[in-house]
Amino acid sequence: MAITLLTDVTAAPFVEVFIDDLIPEAASLTVYRLAAGREFEMRGAVRAPTAGAFTRIDFEIPFNIPVTYRAELFDAAGESLGFTDSATTTLICADTWMHNPLNPSGGVRVALGGDSAAVISRPTPGVVSRPLGRRVGVVLSEPRYGVVGLKLDVRTSNNADADAVQAMFGDAGMPPVVCVRLGARDGVMRVPQPLFLSTLNVSELDITHQWGGGEISHQLDGDEVDPPIPGLFVPLLTRADLNAFYSTRAALNADNLLRLDVNRRYDLAGTAG
After folding, report:
1. β-sheet bridge partners, residue 128
2. Measured between alpha carbons, how far is residue 105 from residues 14, 100, 112, 231, 269 in Å?
3. Closest by alpha carbon to 91, among 210, 201, 10?
4. In terms of DSSP bridges, do strands 48-49 and 28-35 run parallel, antiparallel, or are they unpaired?
């Protein structure tokens, strides 16, 4: 029950988590991703049904740091059967990418302006109470917040990328949350990886667009938030993609020996347009 991790950096960089030869009793599984001391359930891989093998794409893997995956198996009654072995990989990427977690195919390579994340604030909500008769106050506090009021200068160089960045923040019914994965050029910023950031207003500042250069600055001022629940995901590869590529069922079967092979044809994602 080993996990095989396959990476791709030709588009929005991702890792494929492929688990082969599962025990017969395994009816579903949950994949966990551990990086930089934080553990997440992998999107689309929460109590996901399986039939001997499993494959899923992770678009939220952070860049340039070791990332470990393992899966917990469950039987048909939902009882845990234990964990698979772990597998670790490091996805090397120089560029910073952003996408809405519910639309991974809309990811955009962006550049961050030099004043991005110049100030990073993680406040602790509370008050200092001063009871009568005490010389010093007493702190009444709550758990510390994540990053708040983070300012990012997100640069795009063409209209298509600018439109895609704007669409991430609430279009098509999506929540205004983005997953920011810092590339090596921006990786010195002391923010969580990956960073899930929400802002309710993204202003555009024209840099060279008016002169035909196409560069626009998207001004983000947002807070770190929880991502959408990991059980929500949009499949990368759809039946429509397969139907658009293969004219007949016979052609599909001739090109793919097993059903599992069909499920892993991520190269056909988006064929249907």
Report:
1. 139
2. 11, 9, 21, 17, 9
3. 10
4. antiparallel
262 phi and psi, to 5 degrees?
-65, -45
Mean pLDDT (whole number) for 156-162? 94
In which residue are the tokens 């590529």 written? 245
- What whole-number distance in Å separates Cα of residue 273 and Cα of residue 257? 25
Q: Count each helix (H run) and each strand (E run) in the chain, helices first.
A: 4, 18
Instruction: Give the pLDDT score at 6.
Output: 63
Per DSSP, the three-state class of 235 is coil
Residue type at 83? F
> Where residue 1 falls among pLDDT bands split at 50, 70, 90?
very low
- Tokens linked to 100: 């809405």
Region 237-256: mean pLDDT is 70
Q: Which amino acid is at 161?
A: D
Angle at CA 135, nearest 5°, toward 129 and 136? 45
Distance CA 139, CA 127 (A): 6
Q: Rounded to an integer, what distance in angstroms lies between the CA atom of residue 70 and that of residue 155?
A: 36
Q: What is the DSSP string of 53-117?
A: -EEEEES-PPSSS-EEEEEEEE-TTS-EEEEPPPEEE----SSEEEEETTEEEEEEEEEE-TTTT
Task: List Cβ neighbours of 143 (8 Å cut-off, separation of 6 or more).
Answer: 124
Placement of tokens 């929005």 in the chain: 12
Angle at CA 206, nearest 5°, toward 190 and 215?
70
Give the span between the Cα atoms of 57 and 154, in whole angstroms.
26
Please identify which residue in the block is written with the tokens 């709550």.
Answer: 142
Alpha helices, H only, 104-193: 159-167
Tell me: the pLDDT tens digits for 47-67? 999 888 888 889 999 999 999
Taking residue 54's Cβ as centre, other Cβ atoms within 10 Å add up to 24
10 Å CB burial of residue 60 (0-12, 13-18, 19+) is buried
